Amino acid sequence: MNDEAPRDFIRQIIYSDLESGKHSEIVTRFPPEPNGYLHIGHVMSICLNFGVAEETGGRTFLRYDDTNPGKEDVEFVEAIERDVHWLGFDWQERLTHASNYFEELYQAAEKLIELGLAYVDSLSADEIRAYRGTLTEPGRNSPFRDRSVEENLEMFRGMRAGNYQDGEHVLRAKIDMASPNMNLRDPALYRIRHTEHQNTGDAWCIYPMYDFAHTLSDAFEEITHSLCTLEFEDHRPLYDWFLDQLKPPHRPRQIEFSRLNLAYTITSKRKLSQLIEDGIVNGWNDPRMPTIAGMRRRGYPATALRDFVKRGGVTKKDKLIEMGVLENCVREFYGDSAERRMAVLRPLKLILTNYPDGQVEMMESMNHPNDPSMGTREVPFSREIWIEQDDFMEEAPRKFFRLKPGGEVRLRNAYIIRCDEVVKDGDGNVTELRCSYDPDTRSGSANSDRKVKGTIHWVSAQHAIDAEVRLYDRLFTVPNPNSAEMLSDVLNPKSLEVSAAKLEPSLAELKEGEAVQFERLGYFCLDSQDNTAESPVLNRVVTLRDSWAKIEKEAMASNG
Ligand code: ATP
Ligand code: MG
After folding, report:
1. Is residue 2 domain-resident?
2. CATH code at position 386
3. What is the C-alpha separation between 557 and 517, in angstroms, rounded?
């Protein structure tokens, strides 16, 4: 892969560390916690970590940050590996778990105790909170802060041996209870949890805290640049404190960048899993989810996702990227590569009263209007066809150039027709159009040059494939659902619409993983989960035009 990104502030640091000889090889890590599926925000972190290593001939670890037993699951572990590979990155033999370092971490904690820099605290969780103070008030020292090294060691070993209940004691770093940085007010290093761990089973009943485990895992793996999101900026002094005190042979450097936020989307695993629990979406790979698995199933190509995060760049500024930017990357990818087909999403029957009953003509149709090398296909035409309901209007405004009573329109790749009669049911709904065709206007024929303003698509009724086509819209009605108190208040009830569609017969050959453009309707692909040969199921990947600009303008207007 050779998509070198422009030099953002992190790349500037990294390249200058190489030029100055500070490092001869760049080593990074992508450290997901296996408590959910990866989402669009993780795509940014993956592309950054794997990308800079790849560009500079360095290495990247995929490390499970699995210090939190109970919340983690092998389903998530497997999904993470699948998703990183699908994006086009490979960790080779560098797949690691923070939990594989539990013994080394434990030894490092004993070392801190021996240095007089850690102590076993026996305050309850509530008391610890009360002693911590606030942003404006310093904390107070715990009465257990001055235990002797020997007592601390004995108690910590007792914690490991399982001699205590959950919450009875914690191991804390001894730093400064008056520090203006709350993270330095004697942060916890180990807590007791009699819980099985997805990787280490019941080997441990004490588990290291994130900051401690993360810093030392970086050091053990000889990570040169530990890239993380801005919320860890205030943790950096603690990161550096661990390194200063323990002096591991390799000293990593933490650098923070701002999170990628996508408008009308949430990127918190906790909230995404809430959507699943509440039955609002059907699992982590629901095509409406901003997860890699969801976007893959929706039909977004990996290239488009990588392209998208590259456009967003790497900065320290908080930003909310518009959905239109992501969708445009998908459109650009398929614009040149996807073949054209015809399909009708909301079918209305149209009968050509002067077309011979039983006759079928094969209409030659280009697979791509701008690229003859993509060839042509034959599309059957007959007396009864389906057209789109909204390509007909009974009371049409003057500028409506599709079909109206008495009006003419061209059927794409076929004939010009005129609407002679509108058939309705008892409730006044239009059920059928009776039209006549002009036999002299066949597309591509010598005298096909008679012009009408509108062209519409169609599918021959007797040849049509019935399919379920799923049309997606944004999941939320507000640009920043993260700030909503209740997600249920800002859900878009129309995020999924299911259409009983009619497809041209050549679509029987569509393969999983391929996308086509349905003329005038968007890009579509087979659903990798629910599609079968007997009952085809397709997803709309994206519409043809950017509808977000309009949605965003409306949102601005309604906010005053
Ligand atoms: P969540 O809030 O969804 O649980 P997280 O940050 O806790 O997200 P992790 O699995 O810990 O999820 O994240 C793995 C890596 O991905 C971390 O380095 C994290 O900083 C990065 N990351 C997570 N979300 C984003 C985002 N929106 N933009 C950029 N990087 C992100
Ligand atoms: Mg996390």
Report:
1. no
2. 2.40.240.10
3. 33
